[in-house]
Specification:
heterodimer, A: about 400 residues, mainly alpha, two-stranded antiparallel sheet, 6 strands, elongated, B: about 260 residues, alpha/beta, 6-stranded mixed sheet, 4-stranded antiparallel sheet
Chain lengths: ~400, ~260
């Protein structure tokens, strides 16, 4: 039987709450300290961090809605699956409004990023990465509904909001990968959300949401087979999504120029090229003066690293900290992958020796007092060969 | 031909209750209740706590029976396997009942029509018919929270009956309803009772005199009287003291005394 969808949407508390959801999502994005607008993947991924604040808001809204609807319960006992269908439709309506509001906020953020000058449009993988945060919002809405339906007291609303916030932020803090649906405090250039993890998260949230709604009624557990299947799905989702990283290196739209080093920047960072190359050139001249050969290539691509190739980190900070960005890139060329893949304390010590010297060298080259690298540094670079 | 029509033509009772007992923990709410009922109005009377609402809930399969059976149009509402089929023949008005106040009258009835599995293309007609039947035509756009208690009760009645089920279980159908609309509802129930079974629990003794084809009086969960309203009135009339007491009240008082504590 076709449900009265339009009517349900019309009466849903989600409808008047749309401005609130948009405001919370946008405030969470624009009032944070990072400024990722020039980098579209980072912008979109960071927007999804709004779920940490929106989760409690949506759970509270759903709880409130369930409390409003709870008086209908005695009228729902006789109709076939009356309670499930009634609450399911109300939950779906509220979730639909929340999702619509969330997507409106995302469109606003992308539009601002475009106005800011980012040359890219969202890629398919950016769109896939929208699914997990939406799944998380649907799940917290279901949890809020259950809480309000089973305990229709206004005291439950702040409790469910606080509880949801504690669980979500706690899960973030203990680095549970399946709960990380967005949020990055540094550039994601060269990285992209993992579609497999996004799919696993979506499965996890869908299964969990089904379980929560299935267990809603006071006559719970009437469909043991589907509940068992949902439990299997949830466990599989936790297992599949529970990987170390929700991001992976991805091909970049690069613009390369120059030699020794060739500097390859993402199209999104091309406007920053001159700001990066000016301090880099001065530093490389200094290094050459004391007999240190320049790196072959400095790049923002994370899948193109090897001996003599340095990854350029945090180029978005070039205006504030040119020395940090340049020495980071040059250090990476010397230490290669050792900085992140050092296997022994000795290797790590060598990485620090090289990086410390490069940073010191940069500042001395600016002051014109640069001297050749000490033997310890030369030896450390040679010993790191296996790691590079 | 519907199952209800089939039952009617075959002469089989639409409701068959045999040895029904319901317990809440140690308290026995119904004790071995048995009766059958075809089209007509069965009024269930009794003091507070006598088991009237429990009987309606047990008929609807909402109160688990500790013994006995209930069959609605041939389907057991005690057996979990057939409870859905049994309930599909039922319209149920609980007491107390309410509906979310932010819904409009029309919307609340349409929602119930959907839950009662009325096809989408038939809902508007059914809702309009229900609204007209209960005198709600001028209120369809009103929010439920803006209605009087009696108006809300009429909306709930129309919700319970929008799909015109063969069996209607109504707990206090005319409570809170003003005299004018009570008359309307009584006429409607009277008309429907020709081809529907209506089981109504009520404290309104006038309802019994005007509506009932049959009366069931419950005392402490047991059937203390089962018969025509005239018989009950006659029994009470002998006890009523020169018009100082309504004959039905006297009959109920008498039955309560006969079936009171210590009685079976």
């Amino acid at each position: 039987m076709r449900p009265p969808v339009r009517l349900a949407l019309q009466r849903s508390l989600g409808k008047p709450a749309v401005p609130l959801v948009i405001a919370v999502a946008l405030a969470n994005f624009f009032l944070r300290t990072t400024d990722p607008l020039h980098e579209l993947t980072w912008t979109m991924y960071d927007y999804h961090f709004a779920t940490v604040l929106l989760g409690p808001v949506v759970a509270a809204l759903a709880c409130w809605e369930a409390i409003r609807l709870a008086p209908a319960f005695p009228m729902l006992e006789v109709p076939r699956d009356g309670e499930h269908r009634f609450v399911g439709l109300a939950w779906a309506s509220l979730t639909a409004w929340v999702i619509a509001a969330y997507l409106v906020g995302l469109v606003v953020v992308v539009a601002v990023a475009k106005l800011y000058g980012t040359p890219r449009w969202p890629a398919l993988v950016d769109l896939v990465a929208i699914v997990p945060p939406l799944g998380m919002l649907a799940l917290v809405a279901a949890i809020g509904f259950v809480a309000g339906w089973r305990r229709p007291s206004w005291f439950v609303v702040p409790m469910i909001a606080g509880g949801t916030f504690a669980v979500v932020i706690g899960a973030y803090m203990v680095q549970m990968a399946f709960v990380r649906v967005g949020g990055a405090t540094a550039s994601l250039v060269g990285l992209a959300p993992r579609p497999d993890v996004a799919a696993a998260q979506a499965i996890l949230y869908a299964g969990s949401t089904y379980l929560v709604i299935e267990l809603l009624s006071r006559d719970a557990g009437r469909r043991p087979a589907s509940v068992a299947a949902a439990i299997v799905v949830v466990v599989a989702g936790v297992f599949l999504a529970g990987v170390d990283s929700t991001l992976e290196p991805a091909a970049l739209d690069l613009v390369c120029s120059g030699r020794d080093p060739e500097v390859c920047l993402s199209v999104e960072y091309e406007p920053w090229r001159s700001q990066f190359e000016a301090p880099l050139d001065r530093f490389l001249e200094g290094l050459e003066h004391v007999g240190v050969a320049p790196p072959a290539r400095l790049t923002q691509a994370r899948d193109d690293l090897g001996p003599g190739v340095g990854f350029i980190p945090a180029l978005y900070r070039i205006e504030d900290d040119p020395g940090g960005v340049v020495t980071g890139a040059v250090s990476n060329a010397f230490v290669g992958r050792c900085a992140s893949a050092a296997r022994t304390p000795e290797e790590l010590d060598r990485v620090f020796i090289v990086v410390d010297w490069v940073e010191t060298a940069y500042h001395r080259s600016v002051n014109g007092r640069l001297q050749g690298p000490p033997d310890a540094v030369v030896q450390a670079i040679a010993e790191l060969e296996s790691c590079r | 031909m519907t199952e209800a029509e089939g039952a009617e033509r075959s002469g089989a009772p639409w409701i068959t209750v045999s040895g029904l007992s319901v317990s809440y923990g140690r308290k026995q709410a119904l004790r071995s209740v048995s009766f059958t009922m075809g089209p007509g109005i069965l009024m269930v009377l009794g003091a507070n706590g006598a088991g009237k609402s429990t009987l309606l809930r047990a008929l609807a399969g909402l109160a688990p029976a500790s013994a006995g059976d209930v069959r609605l149009c041939g389907h057991s509402s005690v057996d979990r396997r057939s409870i859905r089929s049994a309930r599909s023949h039922v319209g149920y008005l609980p007491h107390p009942a309410s509906y979310p106040g932010h819904f409009r009258v029309w919307e609340s009835i349409e929602y119930t029509a959907w839950l009662a599995d009325l096809p989408a293309d038939q809902r508007s007609v059914a809702v309009r018919r229900a609204c007209e039947a209960f005198g709600l035509g001028h209120l369809v756009r009103q929010r439920l929270r803006s209605l009087s208690a009696g108006e809300r009760r009429r909306v709930l009645l129309s919700q319970a009956m929008v799909h015109e089920p063969p069996i209607m279980l109504l707990d206090e159908p005319t409570s809170s309803i003003d005299v004018e609309h009570r008359g309307t509802i009584r006429r409607l129930l009277r008309r429907w009772s020709k081809d529907h079974v209506i089981v109504a629990a009520s404290h309104q003794l006038n309802d019994v005199e005007i509506l009932a084809d049959r009366v069931l009086v419950l005392v402490r969960g047991s059937v203390a009287f089962d018969g025509a309203p005239e018989d009950l009135l006659e029994r009470g009339a002998q006890q009523a003291e020169a018009g100082q007491e309504h004959a039905l009240e006297a009959a109920l008082r008498l039955l309560n005394a006969e079936w009171g504590p210590g009685m079976p």
